[in-house]
Each structure stands twice: as structure tokens, then as C-alpha cells.
Amino acid sequence: MFSKEEYDIRMNNTKQKMLQYGVEGLIISNPSNMYYLTGYDAWSFYVNQVVLVFIDMDEPIWIGRQMDASGAMMTTWMKESSIRFYPDNYVQSTIRHPMDYVAEVLVECGQDDKKIGVEMDSFYYTAMCHERLQIGLPNAELKDTGNLVSWVRVLKSDTEISYMKNAAQIVEKAMQAAYDTVNIGVRENEVAAAITHAQIYGSDDFGGDYTSMVPMLPAGKMTASPHITWSDRRYIEGDILTLEIAGCYKRYHTPLARTMILGKAPGHVQEVADVINEGINETLYHMTPGTTAEEVNEVWTRTIGKHGYVKNARIGYSIGLSYPPDWGEHTISFRGGDHTMLQPNMTFHLMPGLWFDNFGVSITESVHITEDGAETFASFDRKLFEKTVE
Amino acid sequence: MFSKEEYDIRMNNTKQKMLQYGVEGLIISNPSNMYYLTGYDAWSFYVNQVVLVFIDMDEPIWIGRQMDASGAMMTTWMKESSIRFYPDNYVQSTIRHPMDYVAEVLVECGQDDKKIGVEMDSFYYTAMCHERLQIGLPNAELKDTGNLVSWVRVLKSDTEISYMKNAAQIVEKAMQAAYDTVNIGVRENEVAAAITHAQIYGSDDFGGDYTSMVPMLPAGKMTASPHITWSDRRYIEGDILTLEIAGCYKRYHTPLARTMILGKAPGHVQEVADVINEGINETLYHMTPGTTAEEVNEVWTRTIGKHGYVKNARIGYSIGLSYPPDWGEHTISFRGGDHTMLQPNMTFHLMPGLWFDNFGVSITESVHITEDGAETFASFDRKLFEKTVE
Lengths: 390, 390
Prior knowledge:
Two copies of one chain form a homodimer.
Chain A: H1 4-21, E1 25-28, H2 31-38, E2 50-54, E3 61-65, H3 66-75, E4 83-86, H4 98-108, E5 115-118, H5 127-136, E6 141-144, H6 148-153, H7 158-181, H8 188-201, E7 240-249, E8 252-261, H9 267-286, H10 293-305, E9 316-319, E10 328-333, E11 347-350, E12 354-355, E13 360-361, E14 365-369, E15 374-376, E16 385-386
Parallel strand pairs in A: 1-5, 3-4, 5-6, 8-16
Antiparallel strand pairs in A: 1-2, 2-3, 7-8, 9-10, 9-11, 11-14, 12-13, 14-15
């Protein structure tokens, strides 16, 4: 839980942005945005739930399933009357839909004839959710406000930064656990188990939360595809592994990727790692307030281009709090066309992996933009890890 | 990977159902349905990806992000030309949308003037996905076919049942790990870490996969709300915990919940546990082929009603393979109005938790409907676990 003052600032910033976007209300389905504004935290986003924000209402309204309402009362800062719930026979029903109930609440609050922003491309705001709201709110003007609240989240408070620093301590431990566990004859799932244990155990000072993506640790030729998770295959000599994992503290994430080899790194893999590391160093140096996201990508492109390499995917994105299935904020991306200017207390996953037909190398950093530059959250050797067999 | 014969049967059953629903094609976004038909398995569903099935095409077409296409080639049974991908500048862009690309592929295949089913209320089929398809496919008739493929999945093959039996062995180990770890002074996250390690380590014979929901282990008054995850609070004497977890083997789940108390169970908690157990025994006895889902719920309602208890939520649902955020199939629910008849090789999570204002008790079973009755997948004492402090 954050302080009431911090929630007030978040609400105020959200309302400011609503005025800019020209809406009087918001229907928020993205669980990260719900948590950000209210503090609500539970694994209940597999059923429909929303937070309503209106310019002329002091508190948001939380709406969810009946059995989750007591959790909302316990984890949010709002008064009990701001927690509303629909009966269980709305859940996965072919007759009723939870958004019918949401529409009824809006009518009851006299907010059904307003300009209301919806998160058209947000996880958990399905096509059916939108259709039912359109039917239930014939007098409203539903307008796509995209990731409005996510854009408010882009600038972190000092408390949020401190959470991410805790998360970074956790990801260091998790990456070390992976290195300590991986070996010839060990099964991939055993490394995943060691990572996950370290992520959730956290440190002796604070516990870890679940990460919004599970460990991704493709091995061998599977490293050509970065989002493969794991199997129970046993590692063999010469296997290359890319490990993309995160630490998470109270839903705040710091991802980190490293590449490990069971044996000596072949020359062509070492070369790619060296190019990536040069690119990271150069890019980090240029990640100063005032630089644009596009310019960050240009530094990277120029640096690896000198060695004849090209990357045809964005090299990073804004991070912070999140819920599955993604730890990205879906706001700023380091790529051509993104003219967002870096500012102090923005936070990014600098993700310059390079993937080829039958292997890949991932080395990444979570980065905090400070007053005069960039610092990595985690402190973990940025090298190709060779594990030689005993 | 399943046998080609099993994929052929799945495709054929899907096409039969498409004929019943009156569609010539399907655009599938639900990752569980994608995996079921193609074998594609990666944590990449946080970007748009679909599988297309058309009555007049032998193979499905997989469409995803460029960097995930090599994973699709490695994990699916289809030929390389059935794997299509969109460039990275479609990802989380405000200019392009991956569904624009999907529409282009449909045009290219001459399938854009057909009756095409979409999963209107499926995770990851956002309102924006639907809007862009409507714009990109002006000659198609997009029709909500709901959980069409999920309904095909309701009847399990023997191989699927064997996967769920592996998952059950895993959940037994994970629940035991929870019991062994929990104690006064231990932090909640340490129990979650032990559970997760056991889930992913699996057994010495086979490894575990990640579960579609993380462990939910509210304690104390938080047990009134079943989907709370964990914090780093230390357990105190008298704490009651409800643990709802699953085992997962190659994406197939068997959930299980138990309730534990740090000390002697208070009389009112023991009474609730006894009522639930009587209800489970009676309900399991009546879960025979030919019984309807509604009748299963009636047996439960009658049994606990004799003791003055009422439950105002469904008491179970169909389970099998799944991806986050849910391990339910969103098909059959044990509740009034669901007239689906039980058949051999259907599988359910019998979930009769009872939640009150300041505590709850969860004791559940994953159940396999056999030729003449029901058997639980896991074998784990169905009692209130008291952990007395040393």
C-alpha cells in the first residue's frame, strides 16, 4: 500500500490527463491500472473487473465478482461503499455479462450520459466487454483512450523507484541461482524451479512477488526464439541458454537477461555478445534526460551497425508495476518514430537481444533515468557466462 | 507434442463443430486453443497472435510476431509455409495493429469473404482486435462463436488424462511442500516459494510446467477472499490459510485446495470443514456419466443445506490445458441452469469453498469422470490440516 497522498497524486494526474483526452469518465480494465489507482491486488483478473474514475467523483469505484469484493475492501484505500460487486451467476455465463452490471452502476451513479474513455486494446477488455457496454450505455460516448493511465505511470515516484530497487536485488539472486543450478545433465525445469524459488523467497529483508512473465530460458537452437519457456530435457555439453527473468517486489518489476553456455563460448557467439555489450555501453551513455526514445534506438543501431549487425525489433520499453501476461507498460518503445523524451524517474527495460536462425544472445538491463544520466537497477556482470563442467 | 493422429482428430472435431455453428473459418486468439490445435507453446501471448482454421484448408495457419515465428516452427506440427509473422513495428504501435496483418493474410488466402467465427469474450481478443478485423475484412461476416474450440476440448483423450495424472502427482508434492514449510514466524512468501519450486521441479520422472494461476494462499481474515496471493507477513499462532494451487504437466492442470491452521482448529472452522467434506463425498458419489452439471450442484446444495449452509457461487468447472490467467476452460460450470451431461473423460475442478465475512475454508478436488463414476486425480488427505508448533 502506498500513502494516501500518493494515491491522491495518481488520481489527480489521471484526471488531468482525462481533461486532455476530452473524457469525463474512465472504465479501467487493465489490472495494473486498477492497482495503481486503488491498491487492489489479487489474482482475480481472469473474471471481469473494472475501476471507474469520473472527474466529478472523489473516489474511484471498484467493481468485481462477489467473492473478490472482501479482498477489495482489504487491499484498497477506498471506503466500503466504493466497492461494488456482481453476483456469481454473471461469471462465464452465456446469458449475463459482468459489463451489464457495470453499465447498471453507471446508470445508478448518473454517469451514463458522459464521454467515457475505455482501454480498447487492453488485456482483459475483450471485444464482448465493449459490445455489452455499448448496448448497456446507449447515451454514453465511449471513446478509446488507449493506455491513458499507463502514460500517467511512466514517471515513477521515489517510493516506486525504491520498490524497483528491491526488485533488482531479487533478480540478482535469481540469476545467480540459475547460474549455480545449470549444468550438463540437469533438467531445464530444475533451473526454472531454482529461479522461481529465488524470485519469490526474495531476501531476508523483504519477500518477492510473482513476476508477470515466467522465466524464459530457451536452450540450444530454441534460443533463436526468445519466449520459449522450458521443458524437462537435460542439458548437454555446448548448450547455449538465454535467460530472461525479472525480480518483482509488490508488483514492481526489474527484468534482466543473461546468456550462459555449458562449456567454452564458440567464437561467433562471443562476437555477438561483445557487439551487444558495446551497444549497451554506448546506449546507456546516451540515455540522458532530453534524449528521445528514437534517438536511443539510433545510438544502438549505429553502434552495432559498425560491426555489420542489424536488429529488426525495438530495443526496449517502459517498465514498472504490472500483472501477467506482460511486464512492459505498453507506452514508450525504443524504436524509430517514438519521439517521447526521456525524463528523470522514467524506467526502462533495455532489451537488445539478437536472434539468428539457430541461436540467439540476450543481455539486457533495467534502467533508471536519473537527473543527469542512466543507471542500471541490477548489478550483475554483463558478460557471456561460461559454465565449465567439473 | 501429441501424435499427428491426435492433432488430426482435434482438427476434425473442430471442423465438425464449425459446421454446427455455421462458420467456414475461425480466428482463434485463446492461447489454450492455439496450443490444442497446433502445439504452439511459448510465453508470447502478450502480443497478438492467432491461429486460423478454415473448413477447406488442411492445416491451420499460425500468425504471430516475427521473433516468435521460429518458436512456432519448432513447436508446431505444421509445415513452415503455415507459419506467418508480422514485423516488429506492429507491436504496441499506435499506427499499425497486428490484426491488420491478419486481415491481409486472410485476403491473400481468398478467405476474406467467408463467415468467420471469432472468440468475442476470449482473453487476448481485445475490443481493438475486433474493431481492426471489422475494418480489414469488410466482406467477411464475423460471428461470435464463443468458446467453440474450448467445447471440443471438454472431452479428453487418454493421453490428456495421463498428462493430468502427472500433474496430480505434482500438486500432491506441492501441497506437501506447503504443509512442511508453513509455521509460526515463517513468511507467506516462503511458503509460496516452496510450492512453486515443487510445482516446477515436478518429479524425478518428469518435470513440471508453470501453472496458469500462481499459488493463492490468503491467511487470517484474508481467507474471506479466495484470490489473494501472498505478502511477506510472518504467520502468527492461530492463523488459518486456504491454499489453492495446481500441478501442471505440459500445460495440463489439476488444481487442489486445502485449508491449514497454525494450531488447533476452532470449532466453527472445523464445522465448516466437516460440512464441506460431507458435501464433497456426496457430490463425488453422484458425479456419474449422464448426470447434468446442474444436478451435481443440486446434490451439493441439498447436502450442505441440511446443516444450514448456503453457497452462492458455482461449485466447479471444466479443466484441462490452459495458459494464464485461468485454469478453467470456460465451458461447463456446476450451477443452476447448466444442463450439460457428464460424460466419461470429462475433467473438473470440484471447487466447493465456503467464504464468510472474516474467514473461509477451501477443500477441493480435481475429478476425472470415468465409465461408471468419478475419481479424484490427486490423493491427498481431505481434512483440515492442523500444524501444531514445536
